[in-house]
């Protein structure tokens, strides 16, 4: 049990680190690798925020087995997320908006996978962020068009699963196309960052059958009022008319030689955090790993539950911690503008600032909200901490909580309060982590 505010904050931080550690590729990848290939080539490719650490884990695992396997390959990860590797080349590229570095890497991955034969093996390392990092636009779609489409979907607040339906149908490598291009057996190891852990939605499923259609992609654009470049709209409409080949579907025989293994999930990380609190005499209540919705609205719902617990010691008795994962959204005004300047921060810090305003004046409540990849939105922090003095400290530093929330500048508020959580890239990603400690 924490005795002071500093203890409570330290406990929350430690719980976040426990959640991240449960999804650390250097700890978990080795147990899921296929046996070394007897003869033939082994090509390792991949994309995502965890790609570099997954590639390093593969190298270490086969080296520890004194394996004769000759590894080769390349993976693409976000800028500043690379690691030194010996056999698998690491390329850094743009995220969340794709860029030409990712396009070149994706083209090379597709070409090299296509060179493999039945006696070779392809190991694919997939993690969150791969949809933008592994961007190879469909024929007739330029990278500028793909960038504009991604930016518009982000602005509209489209959930990642809906975004990926669109991106799969604008890609030559996602939506099962990588598996289609390869004749070798394929083993894909997946670190999940999506609610429900659907492999087809993670990095837009390069080796997974895709049940969605061009018509579904058009429906996503309509649902969120997304205005995309005319060439993108026209391409999707051609696909819906059957003039462009669909992505490989469930039941396609090509997937008989493909194995997709989800090796890390948000649920596993939340359970690790729950164990951390339980060992310290605090009852953990896991509210789910699939929480979605507007960050501010989700915070209001959680605040109502916290007030009920503080007032009536029900439905859970204190001390208790409410733990959840998933991915909220932040919908920005047209043009990315905001009342008091450029938005700063991300969904975790926005959730926490909304929670702070809803709970202003409620004692003995502490919270953390942070992205397990170490980056929350536009800045370099993973998220932020909240304690009963946060808003007062921010106000003393000249930061108005309501004005900052209206401006989508949660980063500015928590920076003024000294409550940012900065970890640097964790090189994994199982989505957001939220814990509200009620003492």
Automatic annotation (TrEMBL):
Any one GO MF annotation of this record: glycerate kinase activity
UniProt-listed Gene3D superfamilies: Glycerate kinase, MOFRL-like N-terminal domain, MOFRL domain
Classification via InterPro entries: GK-like_C_sf (IPR037035), GK_N_sf (IPR038614), MOFRL (IPR007835), MOFRL_assoc_dom (IPR025286), MOFRL_protein (IPR039760)
EC number: 2.7.1.-
Record-annotated MOFRL domain positions: 320-432
Signal peptide: none
Keyword Transferase: yes
Keyword field contains Kinase: yes
Keyword terms: Kinase, Transferase
Residues covered by the MOFRL-associated domain: 12-237
Class of the enzyme per the UniProt entry, highest EC level: transferase
Entry GO CC: cytoplasm
Name used for this protein in its record: D-glycerate 2-kinase
